[in-house]
């Protein structure tokens, strides 16, 4: 009889569902015929504690591993940035020390937000160019650059050009980070960025040029913010140009000769911000409507989101040409804005409370040369005296007919 019961019990156990076996192994038992009852055995709490410890160990391990640079390099789109970091001066600093703020709470929040990057990578919806924002607090944290604002003026030596001696640039971090520059609040990454892949957090001189030189060149006059000597002094040694030796100290230091008297092409470019560049990031009309709000644009892009200046502005180049080359200067260097009044009159530029009233010919795209046909100088004199073309009544008649004969003289009298 006992053997039959054992066989029956063994048969019942073999017929039980696999899920019931798992529950009983974990310490949870549901009696036969009583699906509304659940018996919790002591080993269930032991299993629960053991599972919690495993989850905690796994979470801590994954958190620590995910904060290491090797985890960043596991994604192929990050490998160029990892290699740039590995060969930089910051290769002893973990990525999260810069890319996450020093506050523990903010770091945890950003860490969970970063899970979206994993989802984008798995679903192949990520961008080929990762975007990151570095807060000033990360740079100025304890143990990093905490005393940078107290150091005063320092010297920066950019990589020298082939065949050129190194140039030392004087720079003070405090006024650039604590004061408004051109009405804009700068950040550490405004000047220290990674525009060129391979140079991790290097000084981007293009930002310096754009800020100091934009609007500084007017005709033959060059007046950069801070002046030339505030960033780099005149060379102290002799400079040989052709067969002539030249020393800047005699002219700049003693006679106070302006730099642009010799270095007229040291500033090249205007640093324009064209609206077409907005479409690289935006396509919403509501965003593009802020294009003319300069204060908003700089606060939102530079101060709050550390967008590099050259993403919006055309670069300004700054270099001194010392080689002997033919003089090929722009005419506007000497002939500065000679036709501004005529141009504004033709375009019908209005003023405050006065709407624009352009000429009908301007609206129909008639160029200046359409009316100014008669040369003022003879062909023999023009190579020496230049050439100016006067307005011709023949142009009026040629387009409008005989009814417009005499209208040029009447227009000039009025």
Characterize the structure shown:
The protein has 414 residues and is mostly helical. Among the domains are: 133-318, no CATH class; 338-413, no CATH class. 38% of the residues lie in helices and 9% in strands. It contains 20 helices and 14 strands. It has helices at residues 2-15, 18-25, 42-66, 69-73, 79-86, 95-99, 104-113, 115-123, 136-139, 173-178, 188-191, 205-213, 248-254, 285-288, 294-303, 340-347, 360-363, 382-385, 393-400, 407-413; strands at 28-29, 39-40, 153-156, 169-172, 192-193, 202-203, 217-218, 221-222, 238-241, 244-247, 267-268, 317-318, 372-375, 389-391. The strands form seven sheets. The protein has a two-stranded antiparallel ribbon with strand order 1-2. It has a two-stranded antiparallel sheet with strand order 3-4. Strand 7 (217-218) and strand 8 (221-222) form a beta hairpin. The longest helix has 25 residues, at 42-66. The protein starts with a helix and ends with a helix.
Which class of secondary structure composition applies to the elements?
A: mainly alpha
> What integer is the average pLDDT?
79
Spatial shape: elongated
Intertermini distance? 133 Å
Task: Please state the CA-atom Rg, rounded to the nearest Å.
Answer: 37 Å
In total, the number of strands is 14
- The total of helices stands at 20
In terms of per-residue confidence, which ranges show pLDDT below 50 for 5 or more consecutive residues? none
